[in-house]
Every structure is written in C-alpha cells, then in structure tokens.
Design a protein that fits this description.
The complex is a heterodimer. By secondary structure, chain A is mainly α. Chain A has one helix and no strands. The termini of chain A are far apart. The mean pLDDT of chain A is about 85. In chain B, helix 14 runs antiparallel to helix 15. The chains are: A mainly alpha, B mainly alpha. Chains A and B meet through helix 1 of A and helix 5, helix 9 and helix 12 of B.
Chain lengths: ~40, ~575
C-alpha cells in the first residue's frame, strides 16, 4: 500500500474540499427534495 | 414462471457463479483471502460496499414501502454521507496505517484482548443470525409467490454463493458484486420505464407523479412534528434520518466487519476514501429512485385494480378459515371502490391537464383511497386472528406481485435474478467477514497462534463454508421470527450502538482505558436490551443511546475510578494511533 502522505487527491486540492463537497451536496439534495415534496403535494 | 423466465434466471445466476470462480485466484494467505492483497481500485470498493449494504430486501421492500407509506423512507439514509466524511477522517487512516485484517484487531492495540473479544463476539452473534434471516427473507417471498418449497429455496438462496465465496474469498466477492450491481440496475431501470409505459396513453411520467403526490406518496421530507410535539416513535423523518441515520451508518460502515472488510481491500487510503465518499454521493439518489419506482407502481394501481392483499397465500388462508364470508364482503366492496377509483383518477388527470383547479375530483379520489385503505386494514385485522395467522404485512410482496402480474416474459426472470443477486452480494460479504473475525480474532488468537500461511488459508475456507451452512441452517428455522425486516433491524440496533460507542471511545477519548470501556459497554448493552423490551422507542434511537451511553459512562467511570495501572503503562507505551 502507498504511503498516505504521497497520495494524490483526485479532483480537489485537499480532502477537506472533498468533505465540504459531500456535505453541500447533501444539503442541496434535501432542499431539492423539499421542493419536490411541496410541488407534488 | 414461463420457460423464457427460467432461461433468463438460470443463465444470469450461472454467469455470476462462473465469473466468481474465474476471478477467485488469490495468494494462499490471509492477506490474499480476506483483503485481496489490498489491491482494489476505488470503483470496486464503491460497488462492493453498495452491494454489501443493498440486500434483496432493499429492492423488494423499498418500492413496497413507497407504495404504503410514501417516499419518506429515503430520509433514513440522510446521515450516511455525513458518516462517510467522519469515517474518511478518522477510521480509514487508522485501519490502513495499522494494516489490520479486522476492525476489532485495532481494539486490542488500543484497549486489551478482552474488549476485542467482546466486540468480536457481539458482531458474530448479530451478523451470524441476521445473515440467516437475509437468506430466509427473500426465500419466503419467492416461495409464497411461486409455490416453491421454502427449504429448497433457502438452500438455493444461501447455498450457491458459498461455492465462489469459499473459493475466491474477498476478491471473488468484490468482482461478483460488480457484475451483480450492473444486472440489478438494469433490472430496476427497465422496470421503472415499463411502469410509465404501461400507464394509459394520455398519462405521462409527470402526471403519474402528480397522482401519487396528491395522494401523499411523494412525502420525501417530513419533520416528525405533530400537534403534540416531536413524535419519538415516528421512524422516518428528517431528524431521525440525519441523527439516527448518521449513528447507524457510522456503526455499520465503521465497525461492522462486513463493510470494513470491503474498504480494507483498497490499494491505498485514497482509494478507500474515494470509494466511501462516492457512496455518500450516490446512495441517497439511488434510494430515491428505487422508492420512486414504488410511487409509480402506486400510480399504476390507481388506473388498474390493485389486489386487496399482495400476498395471495394469506388470502387463500382466510378463504379456508371461518372468516371466509367477511373476506367475500370486503372483496365485493373493494372491487366496487377500485372501479370508481379508476374513473376518478382519469377525471383528476383530465382536470389537472385542463388547468381546472376546483379540487373536486382530487378530494373524491382521496376519499376513495382512504376507503380502500380502510378495507385493507379490515382484512389485515382478520389476518391477526389466531384462526388465520401468518404475516399481516404485504409491503415486501407489492413490488414482486406487480412484476409477476404485469411484466412481460423474460423480464420476470431477470427481476427474480435481481433478487437472488442482491441477496448473494450481501450474504457473500457477510460470510467473508464472519470467517475473517472467526479466524483472525478468535481462532488464531486463542487456538492456533503459530499456524503457517497455508494453514490459515485453509482454515479460512473452512470457516467461510461453516458460516454459509450455519446461515442456511438459521434460515430453515427463521419462520418463527415474525416480521423479518424488523428482526434484522432490531438485531442490528441492539448491538450497533454499543460497538460504535467502544470505537468512539477508542478513537476520540484517549484518556479512557480498557477497564472503563469494557464494563461500560456491558452495562449499556444490558440497558439497551431492557429499553427495547420495555419501551416502543424507534430502533434508530437505540443506536444513538447505545453509542453515547458507552462514551458518557466510560468517561464517568474513568474520572471516578481511574485505572492507575494503565496510567503507568501508557507513559512508556504510546497507543498505536499516536505512533502511526
């Protein structure tokens, strides 16, 4: 297995950016689902 | 099933077993057998963790859940992406750095052998029994629908996958899960498309959504708040999903070896992380789409007569019971209401398309649906009579009944194959993890410490085989366990909280030692069993209480009765995560 410190992070500059992206994506999904629920109710 | 269905089913299953055997070449040691020599790329990790989590019940139960209770079940997964982030920050780097085979191996480094063994034992108990139920749950549904012998269905469901799981270990599990997922997604996508295609000609996808939305089935976001405040017994709302779902996902992906064993096969920490984070991205939308199929099936049954009860075996039971006349009366009323419903829904769609917003047809449609639900509830009351007995919930039968009654020849076979493959994916990973814990945490620890690599490899195969036989054996007796999904969920929620609590203390509270953690875990576990027995609290909350209980109690224990022996020892022996 490679040493963690030498590994390249795909797509983003740091893992923290990845984590922020996941959380923002979840919040966006919840907002989208709220609109979906209201629109079809 | 038609001949075409049998051919599709047989060919698909044979292809998977052959592929599993073809991919089963590993090095003959524990690293090769349980961790694929740590060579897997992120996309195989992703498919493997998704294939392990998604059992047959996921694909059978979720559409039925949307049909009966709406799409709010998706909220159950809201905590999962957050848990993936925490796992990537804490759990993954530590497990990789220490090069552990099992998650519980780490607990001996951090605490002692007693805590490691306790956690391993709790896992074996919970996972061993729940794997048996995972074999039985889809078997009983297929057996009821097609009249297959339940014992042979169990043997087929839990037995065939043993061939490639024993031969190829983790590598065969991962590669077959990849192929299984492709078939599963193809099957679900075609079904969703077919449901819309089978609606009346002037009714499109959005119209179908309008129908199910107006009838309360697109309730994706709910708050759980009623006039009397927050309902703690409400299982699926945004708060139980975010908080309870977070703890559930953290314990399942972080401490359950059936999942930990998947991402430990990654060739690097980055590959593990990407696999888990991608799971956090795709899991919620995937569940949303599976539930959407259920909502569309609901719309389909507004335009077509739905069965009074989707498990026909239960209808046959009532027909041969003293309640036969009551059934006939219910069926007569139900048929009349179904005809009325078909007319009303057509009227509703026409009004909606014409922009008429009087709400009259919508109101009438809602009233008729309430009435049909009342009749279904009356029928379920009959099923609860002791002269009838059996399962009074048909949620798991809705989707498959729809498939069998309305899907074209060949596609039925493919969807039955989907059920088998989804089952095999999760059961194979469970067997692999049960064997790894048995060998690494128990056998090598207590019985054969100095065994050779080849002996370990051979022992691992025997343990995998043994757990496979055990699961099929449990499945043969699972008929007396009542509601099966509930049984799996309860088993998980009874143990996950305590196990997660132990790991949270291990990772985050360095001042707490082995003695405080071990006894706190035992006390909290007893408390959780008592709480489950004496209260009606939603099962997701048991995990939260269990995890926080172990953390809080162990801190208090350490403060009140500090382990002096440990304090001295730690001055000279830093913990593994500190040394890296």
């Amino acid at each position: 297995m490679e040493d963690e410190s030498n590994e390249r992070i795909p797509l983003f500059r740091s893992w923290n950016h990845w984590y922020a992206f996941i959380i923002i994506f979840l919040v966006a999904l919840i907002i989208l689902f709220s609109f979906f629920t209201k629109y079809f109710a | 099933m038609s001949q075409a269905d049998w051919i599709v089913l047989g060919t698909t299953l044979l292809a998977i077993v052959t592929y599993g055997l073809y991919k089963s070449k590993t090095t003959k040691n524990l690293d090769g057998y349980f961790l694929s020599n740590r060579t897997m790329p992120w996309y195989l990790i992703l498919l493997s963790i998704m294939g392990t989590q998604a059992s047959a019940i996921t694909f059978l139960s979720a559409p039925g859940q949307a049909y009966t209770d709406g799409m709010r079940f998706v909220q159950y997964y809201f905590g999962l992406p957050l848990a993936m982030v925490v796992l990537c920050i804490t759990f993954v780097p530590i497990f990789h750095r220490l090069k552990v085979f099992t998650a519980y191996e780490y607990l001996e480094n951090r605490f002692d052998v007693k805590t490691r063994t306790l956690t391993s034992f709790l896992f074996l108990l919970q996972r061993g029994l729940s794997t048996g139920i995972s074999v039985y749950a889809p078997s009983i549904i297929l057996s009821s629908l097609f009249g297959w012998n339940i014992y042979w269905t169990n043997i087929f469901m839990g037995g065939i996958l043993i061939i490639y799981t024993v031969t190829g270990g983790a590598k065969a599990v991962a590669y077959t899960q990849q192929l299984q997922f492709l078939v599963i997604f193809a099957g679900m996508f075609i079904t969703g498309w077919m449901v819309v295609h089978m609606l009346p000609k002037d009714v499109g996808f959005i119209d179908a959504l309008k129908v199910s939305g107006k009838l309360g089935k697109l309730n994706v976001i709910t708050t759980g708040v009623t006039d009397k405040g927050f309902n703690w017994e409400d299982r699926y709302n945004i708060w139980s999903g975010l908080i309870g779902g977070f703890f559930l996902a953290l314990s399942y992906f972080g401490t359950d070896q059936s999942q930990v064993g998947r991402y430990l096969t990654a060739k690097s920490v980055s590959e593990s992380r990407i696999g888990l984070l991608m799971n956090g991205l795709v899991k919620v939308p995937m569940q949303f789409l599976i539930l959407l199929v259920g909502a569309l099936v609901f719309s389909f049954y507004q335009f077509n007569e739905a069965p009074l009860f989707f498990n026909e075996t239960q209808i046959a039971r009532v027909e041969s019971s003293p309640y036969k006349d009551s059934l006939q009366s219910i069926q007569k009323q139900y048929k009349a209401l179904s005809a009325k419903k078909t007319q009303l829904v057509q009227g509703f769609v026409s009004e909606y398309k014409a922009g008429i917003t009087s709400g009259k047809s919508e109101h009438e449609l809602k009233m008729v649906n309430t009435e049909t639900e009342r009749l279904r509830a009356d029928f379920k009351k009959i099923l609860q009579k002791k002269e009838v007995g059996g399962d009074h919930s048909d949620t798991n039968y809705i989707f498959l009944r729809f498939v069998v009654d309305h899907m074209p020849k060949g596609l039925v076979g493919l969807l039955i194959a989907v059920i088998f493959l989804a089952s095999w994916g999760s059961i194979a990973a469970a067997l692999n993890s049960l064997a790894s814990i048995s060998v690494v945490d128990i056998h090598k620890k207590f019985f054969r410490k100095d065994s050779s690599e080849l002996e370990d490899y051979s022992t691992s195969k025997w343990y995998t085989f043994g757990w496979g036989i055990f699961s099929v054996f449990v499945a043969q007796f699972a008929g007396n366990m009542g509601s099966l999904i509930e049984a799996v969920n309860i088993l998980g929620s009874l143990f996950y909280g305590t196990i997660l609590g132990i790991f949270l203390v291990a990772f985050y509270i360095k001042r707490v030692g082995a003695r405080a953690t071990f006894w706190s875990a035992l006390i909290v576990e007893a408390g959780i069993v008592l709480l489950f027995w004496k209260s009606k609290i939603g099962f997701l909350w048991l995990i939260v209480i269990g995890a926080l209980g172990v953390v809080i109690l162990s801190i208090c224990w350490e403060v009140i009765m500090p382990d002096k022996q440990r304090s001295g020892k730690n001055q000279h022996q830093p913990r593994p995560e500190e040394t890296g």
